[in-house]
Prior knowledge:
Chain A has nine helices and eight strands. In chain A, helix 2 links the parallel strand 1 and strand 2. The longest helix of chain A is centred in the first third of the chain and has 19 residues. With about 300 residues, chain A is an alpha/beta fold. Chain A is about 35% helix and about 20% strand. In chain A, helix 1 packs across helix 7. In chain A, strands 1, 2, 3, 4, 5, 6, 7 and 8 form an eight-stranded mixed β-sheet that branches.
Amino acid sequence: MFEGTLAETYTGTMSEAYVHGYDARENERLRDQAGTLVELLHDDTAYPAGSTVLEVGCGVGAQTVTLARRCPDARFTSIDVSADSVAEARRRVERAGLANVEIRQADVFALPFDAESFDHVFVCFVLEHLSRPVEALANLHELLRDGGTITVIEGDHGSTYFYPDSPSARAAIECQVMLQREAGGNALVGRQVYPLLVEGGFDAVRVSPRMVYVDASRPDLVDGFTRKTFAAMIEGVREPAVQAGLIEPARFDAGVRDLHRTTEADGVFCYTFFKVSPQLSMVERGKAGGSWGSVRWRGVASAV
Amino acid sequence: MFEGTLAETYTGTMSEAYVHGYDARENERLRDQAGTLVELLHDDTAYPAGSTVLEVGCGVGAQTVTLARRCPDARFTSIDVSADSVAEARRRVERAGLANVEIRQADVFALPFDAESFDHVFVCFVLEHLSRPVEALANLHELLRDGGTITVIEGDHGSTYFYPDSPSARAAIECQVMLQREAGGNALVGRQVYPLLVEGGFDAVRVSPRMVYVDASRPDLVDGFTRKTFAAMIEGVREPAVQAGLIEPARFDAGVRDLHRTTEADGVFCYTFFKVSPQLSMVERGKAGGSWGSVRWRGVASAV
């Protein structure tokens, strides 16, 4: 939901307004978001010169441009199942003047690549859309060479809480969760990335939560995250939520107002992304795993 | 709820089992917890030699010992409203052989200290018990000298989520929230520390969330936090919750079972503490504030 890929599981039961990356306002929201969250999500994303990276579910290319700029000497293959998204991503990569990216239309459940043909796999805001995420991860595991890594970044709408609290706002958010579930996805997938990756065949999975904490002392996040990313995303499901009979229009609107209420001087907003850290989640072919058992975990998250 | 102080607002409507720090099992839980969480909560707590620190709501002294050991050349005055807690804290400090701590029975709403008589104030798991937290903070603000700091650490039970998700587990947690509210406290106070401190007269308040993320790759936290701290805390409110008619016993027990279910190999558990960072929240007497406007915020939390 945070960054657009039209997963193959998208069943088309909801209005076009709900589809990611297809209208100007949504594109603007995704750009706002990438600017606000890029450091949070990508500060430890780095691929060495000459390495090959498969980006799965690139959508309209918002993360692609960030990745390819950060790692100019790595070679990216970015795929998406949607022809429209691929076309937009190609335009975006071209406008950015990036020569180290190839965009292809492809399905994570029918990947047109040989086994062990990539050094790294990057998956951002994709598992949330898949009805069979473990199968997708197992497919990606097969594509990785010995010593390869996977990076996964997913949100979790159940990690949202705020002050002042509001049952209406929670109900509006729950509409998004239900719509995504109805479409075969999972808006609560962030908390689940550890078991999904383990089940998909990865061992030594290390999850690094990235909490976005917003209060009035952080005005860029108030505007860039709470208002223009999260509240805008929830506002975007009004029509399908009301049409599906999930909520009364007045209650939904009250919920959106209450989300905006958290952007006032005494308001607080919290959301957490979950990242599988590439440095600590390396594929080791021909080994039984367990070599990371001695890695000293830092069992906590902290922030200034 | 996490660390014991019997706030003066404690109304005695609940069974003794709910009272912090009074029985052996609760004491053991508090020790387990302190050992698990000490780095998370205290890694940036440091007071210089010769400085005076007021610890408010020291309870049975679990944090007191940690603080006084970490800062052997600072002088601590630790207060609690409960005579029983004060007696236990004195025993504990004596057993630890700490000479830099004075324990006194005192009420944060009737403080027996002169204005501007401390360099630092430390408040941990206390605001959650107070029905008038802003008044308490304003009182503490008065005690601080120019250049003094306040450190606040509070939990937030609404920050709890887990996999597998469970409505019963959420209902059991909600019992704790309701009981604490009934007692005049607020188990969701963590998200609120920013506005509370601002309203209490502090400016340039900087909140640093400390997320505890637990999955099977972090076995010490599975045992020390999910099982022995959080689930044990919820288990502790079974009797008062059932007696108050908040929940059916069977549903409560199912909820506790489901909390323990999150400690299995595919389970995940998340909880967040909120710390007001002392380094960034300094009292500046005789100034209109705003001098921290140029501090570059790092608007996010991250962790390995």
